[in-house]
Amino acid sequence: MAEDAAPKIGVYVCHCGGNISDIADPETVARFASGLPGVAVARTNMFMCSDPGQKLIADDIQAGLVDRVVVAACSPKLHELTFRSVLQRNGLNPYLYEHANIREQVSWATSDHAEATAKSESIVAAAVAKAGRLQPLDPIVVETTPCAAVLGAGVAGLRAARDLAQAGIEVALVEKTAALGGNVAKLDRLFPNQESAGELIGRLVDEVLHDERITLYTLASIDRAEGYVGNFTLHLRQKAGGVVVDRAARLNGRTIGAYRPFEGFMIGDHGAAEEGQNGDDERAVVIEAGALVVATGFEHYTPTKGEYGYERLPQVVTLPDFIELMAGVEPGSRLEHDGRPIKSVGFIHCVGSRQVEGVNKPQADGEINEYCSRVCCTATLAAICDLQEKCPGVAVYDFYQDIRAYGRGHEEYYEKASKGGAVFVRFAGAEPPAVAKAPAGDPCLVTVRCKDGLTWGEEVEAGVDLLVLAVGMTPSDVSTLVDSLKLPVGTDRFLLEVHPKLRPVELAVNGVLVAGASQGPKDVTEATATASAAAAKAMTLLSSGRIELDPFVATVDSQRCEGHGLCVEECAYPGALVLTEENGATRAIVNAALCTGCGACVAVCPTNAIDVAGWTLGQYEAMVDALLAEPQEVTP
Amino acid sequence: MSETPRFDALVIGAGIAGLQAAVDLADQGFKVAIVERDPSIGGAMIALSKVFPTLDCASCITTPKMAAVARHPNITTFTYTEVLSVGRAGDRFVASVLSKPRYVDEEACIGCRKCEYACPVEVVDEFDGRLGARRAAYIPFTTAIPQTALIDADNCTLCGACVRACPTDAVVLDQRPREWQLEATAVVAATGWKLTPVGAKPQYGGGEITNVLEPTQMERLLAPHGPYGRVIRPSDGKIPESVAYVQCAGSRDQTLGVSYCSRVCCMYAIKQAMLLSGSLPIADITIYYMDIRAFGKGYEEFYRSAQAMGIEFVKGKVARLTENDDQSVTVRVERLDQFGQVEERRHDLVVLSLGMLPGEDVRQRFDLEVAEDGFVMTPQPKDAPCRTTVDGIFVAGTASGPKDIVDTIVEAGAAATEASLYISKMIAAAETATAASSADVTSPAADRVEVKV
Ligand SMILES: Cc1cc2nc3c(=O)[nH]c(=O)nc-3n(C[C@H](O)[C@H](O)[C@H](O)COP(=O)(O)OP(=O)(O)OC[C@H]3O[C@@H](n4cnc5c(N)ncnc54)[C@H](O)[C@@H]3O)c2cc1C
Ligand SMILES: Cc1cc2nc3c(=O)[nH]c(=O)nc-3n(C[C@H](O)[C@H](O)[C@H](O)COP(=O)(O)OP(=O)(O)OC[C@H]3O[C@@H](n4cnc5c(N)ncnc54)[C@H](O)[C@@H]3O)c2cc1C
Ligand code: SF4
Predict the structure, then answer these.
(1) I need a labelling partner for A384 at 20 to 30 A (CA). Which of A502, B233, B292, B329 fits?
(2) Ligand 1 centre from A314 Cα, in Å?
(3) pLDDT at residue B417 above 80?
(4) What is the pLDDT of residue B250?
(5) What is the value of ipTM here, to two decimals?
(6) Could you tell me if the CB of B398 is within 6 A of ligand 2?
(7) In angstroms, rounded to a whole number, what is the distance separating the alpha carbons of residues A66 and A41?
């Protein structure tokens, strides 16, 4: 496009069903836009993102009516890419596009109709002003490392590694502990089909150990990570005793191992300890990967001391403890704990989950766990069924808020437990059960007292010999990775996907995918489904050997740069900006792949030598001018 | 078509599951056929209002996926075409499909809707939950893909108005159904769900009480351009002052043969209640429930904001619904939170939170085994949730049991991975066989599995 040719801007205002048009009036906004300088056409549509909406733009481009496009619609997070690709498909540079958000920023935030329409007009005016100053840009093309790293060898990590390897991609599978299988390996039989955890893990591990595209590191943790999609570098530290299973190890037959109940799958004849790579020393490992799959899972919530009697009364245990206890009980035998016979067992749901402000103690970060842990209801019911089957005489009391047996085959455990005589007591989150040591002489050891929502809030008291706390899930600690790659985390502290429906297994950092319970509580079925879905994304990313990145990066005008270096100090991304000698003069240069386009350097440059492509100071000024311009009357 | 068209993958059903699986496979370079029996792609989701837990409008999420499928160079879309059967033929599958007549030439139609405007026949609109009307010549909805008209032969009076109105002479009233075949290496069954019948329970009026609605009808009332453009009572247009939801109205009930939990009803009821309190700020909204199953990511938080908005949650079993003279509905409820005491309350409008049944008879048509709940059986539910009892046929979305959109989309991605690996394996095996027969050398198959670009 010739520099001086006057831009022909097309403005398209979306109704978004009624999301926008119920408050702001798209027709008025479009009429207003049509009077702005440079605007060639202004149109409206019910859903700009739909095929008919996109066609409006395509037809105008094809007809030569427009050469720059502004869509006024929802957040750019949703559909900026959708519209850029309309430009591209119709032969226009995709970066001659500007998005105006009049849904989240206007119609969802403003209730007054006239105000909303006026505000939409200002936002559109700013977008148009910027659009007039847009320059065609070329995406930054980078080669990708044809390898993926999978962090965590629970069911999700194992499944993701296996899928990627079978697709021909080299995989580095990194596990923090000595064992494979994660939390599932610490269970016995799994709902909904009572498959044994050992069999399930065995099957997955078998595929992983026999695929020579997978290199496995155990007892390895991440010190830091750097890089960008296509080219990540992970710095690991492997503890003494950590195992590396690579092609060489496989040739030497060092892939044998065994599943140990309640520990996991251990590599090596006698467990991991003998297979250490480097004697007793820790060692550093560096891994290059084109894509990362974070499958670091969860940790059981640890009740605080005294919460429901935990760590105060020996009869109070967690659900995982109870599952392990029951695994050792033969059907028909007497149930014992702590050397005493157990005739009644109580279960309390939602321990560490669905917490209520002011009732539950805040966590270390000052927040409560508002979320539901999704699996503990069915896991508790399955444990009750197991108990009823093995020890028919034992009385069961179940204290719950809602029974969330939602999944396929889950409701059956609820029915079975009820038929088996379990007594259900419903508590409200604001009034959780109170647990106390039973008075001396009482036949039971612990009393649980609570207002029963099923009997008009009547105060009920149950005496039990063992109290099981259905502890929820909390995310594993992946702070080193989160900090070094600046990964987004939700208010629930789990990793946060870009959008639960549009991009459910992608994190906002391109090339980093999430699988399993590291994203939020999930059962095994759901964890492996996310793992395979993440594998699909990684396969697409790595299949062509190259990736295009957005060109919104800093650019240095070497004529103006005087080499002060303030920008380098300001830049938070190592390697993105460096000073070099150029014909005897010091100049800043940008590594486009590492630059995130944050603009921190622009603000500090004393000679205005730096700009971010696609977001230049000139473009900002034009936008601000348009926003501050007096509202003008437009004649239709 | 004289030659049987061949694809790497056949995706049956173009709901959100099928759309996602098709895109994921096509992005990896595979040639995909997606076959949908309705006149437009989009499935059930395109008819929803806004979707939990983000309250995005359903169209905003679905239409771009529909567009991505429609214009993907590796995807061929067949609409108004039903997959009748799938059978194995050697290393691939052969599907028999039936293309129903639109009575409109797909190539010639430009989607101008002139036929629709000219058509004098008004028919109850299924898409709008039978609350609105459409013409006998019509485009199913504004964002339909393809934007091609069709004529509903059952209701057409052959008056010829559409023929005269069409500027491109696209109306062809003598089209016939066409049965044909296509071949694919792998199949993804994304055949979805249908609602449990509204009339199943005589105690709830057996589907005869006008102001007892299906939840999908409420979705349409709440949708941006639904039948009335706002929420009113269908019987008389009254703006409802009180709306009630009856949870588990079609699920968790052995007398209906649906003992399972349908997994989405708690959340869609809460969502609709929240949307209702937005559009009817003074209305009282009550949800009668047994357990609130807000189990997904962000769902408990969603439930809490509904409570904070003043929506009333009553733990109780609804025993009976009766219609009153003023067309309101009396709900007789056994309060589980009050010793089972029985209470009666009047509401202007009642929504039955119906559950999900399988959308297709997959056993009969595709020879897939089903589980006790009637949905596609997944013999390895834990580590391979998309595998079926037939090697090479994978399942995605609600075809294997009720689930919400988030879980459906994730599962579609997983099914695409399974299908992709399977197809690559089959291609490699075929190449090995060819190489072996031509050069008489064998190469290890495992080394040759690769992702197509
Ligand atoms: C009490 C209880 C009972 C359950 N019962 C069932 C059941 O019967 N059926 C069912 O379907 N589901 C059940 N679940 C759910 C099941 O445990 C999870 O779905 C499953 O563990 C999730 O797998 P994952 O791979 O995502 O995470 P995890 O199993 O937590 O695995 C994560 C792995 O990552 C490793 N890791 C963590 N941090 C790092 C790091 N920084 N670097 C490298 N590696 C790291 C961990 O060591 C671990 O090996 C139950 C859960 C609970 C709490
Ligand atoms: C009232 C209600 C409200 C809801 N609201 C929400 C919400 O807010 N958020 C949320 O996450 N979920 C919600 N859901 C759930 C959501 O609707 C489902 O998760 C989603 O529709 C599942 O998509 P699917 O692709 O599996 O099935 P479908 O959308 O049913 O798609 C299946 C497709 O396959 C086609 N098909 C079937 N058999 C054949 C064949 N033989 N040949 C060709 N085509 C065939 C069908 O015509 C259909 O188009 C709601 C559900 C209900 C009932
Ligand atoms: S799954 Fe059940 S026990 Fe666990 S937090 Fe949710 S409601 Fe509570």
Answers:
(1) B292
(2) 26
(3) yes
(4) 86
(5) 0.90
(6) yes
(7) 7
**Is B291 within 8 Å of A79 when comparing Cβ atoms?**
no
* CB-based burial, B408-442: b 16+ in 10 Å, e otherwise: bbbbbbbbbbbbbbbbbbbbbeeebeeeeeeeeee
Residues of chain B neighbouring A534 (CB-CB closer than 8 A): 413
Tokens 């399942």: give the residue: B395
**Residue A293: CB atoms within 10 Å:** 33
Decide whether B103-171 matches B196-356 in CATH topology.
no
The best mutation among A151, A159, A187 to test binding of ligand 1, ranked by most ligand atoms within 8 Å of the C-beta, falls on: A187
The answer to whether B355 and B262 have CB atoms below 8 angstroms apart is yes
Whether the predicted pLDDT of A486 surpasses 80: yes
What are the DSSP calls for B18-36, one per residue?
HHHHHHHHHHTT--EEEE-
- If pLDDT is split at 50, 70 and 90, which confidence band does B3 have? confident
Judge: B259–A412 Cβ closer than 8 Å, yes or no.
Answer: yes
The mean pLDDT value of chain B amounts to: 92
The CATH fold assigned to B103-171 is Alpha-Beta Plaits (3.30.70)
Q: Is residue B81 over pLDDT 60?
A: yes
Does residue B142 carry a pLDDT above 90? no
Q: Does A635 touch chain B (CB under 8 A)?
A: no
Whether residue B397 is predicted with pLDDT greater than 70 in this model: the reply is yes
Confidence of residue B18 (pLDDT cuts 50, 70, 90): very high
Q: Residue A73: CA atoms inside 13 Å, Cβ hemisphere, count?
A: 31
Cα A473 to ligand 1 centroid, rounded to whole Å: 9
Kindly state the average pLDDT of the residues A225-244: 93
Tokens coding A408: 């396929």
**Ligand with the closest atom to the CA of B129:** 2
Residues A450-478 as b or e (16 or more Cβ within 10 Å = b): bbbbbbeeeebebbbbbbbbbbbbbbbeb
| φ, ψ of residue B5 in degrees (nearest 5) | -65, 145
For residue A404, the distance in angstroms to the closest alpha carbon of chain B comes to 5
pLDDT, average across residues A612-632: 89
Is-contact B273 B246, C-beta < 8 A?
no
- The stretch A556-578 carries a mean pLDDT of 90
Q: Say whether pLDDT at A252 is over 80.
A: no
The tally of CA atoms less than 13 A away on the side-chain side of residue A621 is 5
Residue ranges of domains in chain B? 1-100+177-192+359-453, 103-171, 196-356
CB contacts < 8 A, A to B, total 233
A411-441: pLDDT as tens digits: 999 999 999 999 999 999 999 999 999 998 8
End-to-end CA distance of chain A: 31
pLDDT of residue A271: 40
Q: What share of chain A is helix, strand, coil (3-state, %, to 5)?
A: 30, 30, 40
- pTM for the model stands at 0.90
Angle between helices A51-62 and B58-70 (to 10 degrees): 60
Quote the minimal CA–CA distance from B2 to chain A in Å: 31
3-state secondary structure labels for all residues of A374-407: CCHHHHHHHHHHHHHHHCCCCEEEEEECCCCCCC
- Cβ–ligand 2 distance for B249 under 6 Å, the answer no
Answer whether A169 touches B (CB < 8 Å): yes
Domain B196-356 has CATH 3.50.50.60: yes
Q: Is A355 in the pocket of ligand 3 (CB under 6 A)?
A: no
For residue A306, pLDDT over 80 is answered with: yes
How does DSSP classify residue A483? H
Pocket of ligand 1 (CB under 6 A): A 151-157, 174-177, 182-184, 187, 190-191, 221-222, 295-298, 300, 319-320, 375, 379, 382, 473, 476, 478, 516-517, 522-525, 527
Query: Is the previous residue joined to B146 through a cis bond, with omega within 30 degrees of 0?
Result: yes
CB of B269 closer than 6 A to ligand 2? no
Topology of domain B1-100+177-192+359-453 in CATH is FAD/NAD(P)-binding domain (3.50.50)
